[in-house]
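Quick one, C-alpha cells below:
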C-alpha cells in the first residue's frame, strides 16, 4: 500500500515519486512533498525566484535592479539582504537594506544565498 499523499489537484491516489517531486499520472500535476505538508498545516510557503523555500532569518540577494517607489534610489542586482522576515501580502519579505533602510520586497525578485 502506498504512503504517498493523493494528488492535491484531482485527488488521484496513484501519485508517484520522480526525484524530489511527486507526480500524478492522471492529470500530470507535479508538486513538492515539503510544500504540501506545510500547506496542509496552514503555514505559508514562500519561495524565491529559483524555487528555494524561504524562512525567517535567511539571507537573500536581489536578482534584478529594483526602483524604490517615491525615491530616486535603486536597489542594484547582487545586493545582499540579511535576516529577512516573511510577511503576508503582495510584498512578502520585510527587510533592511544598507544605504536605503527598511523596505518590503517581492520573493520573485530575490535568490537565497
Amino acid at each position: 500500500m502506498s504512503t504517498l499523499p493523493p494528488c492535491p489537484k484531482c485527488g488521484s491516489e496513484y501519485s508517484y515519486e520522480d526525484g524530489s517531486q511527486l507526480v500524478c499520472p492522471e492529470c500530470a500535476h507535479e508538486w513538492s512533498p515539503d510544500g504540501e505538508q506545510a500547506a496542509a498545516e496552514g503555514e505559508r510557503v514562500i519561495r524565491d525566484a529559483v524555487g528555494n523555500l524561504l524562512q525567517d532569518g535567511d539571507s537573500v540577494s536581489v536578482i534584478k535592479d529594483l526602483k524604490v517607489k517615491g525615491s530616486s534610489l535603486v536597489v542594484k542586482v547582487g545586493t545582499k539582504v540579511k535576516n529577512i522576515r516573511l510577511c503576508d501580502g503582495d510584498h512578502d519579505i520585510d527587510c533592511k537594506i544598507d544605504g536605503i533602510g527598511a523596505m518590503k520586497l517581492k520573493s520573485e525578485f530575490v535568490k537565497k544565498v
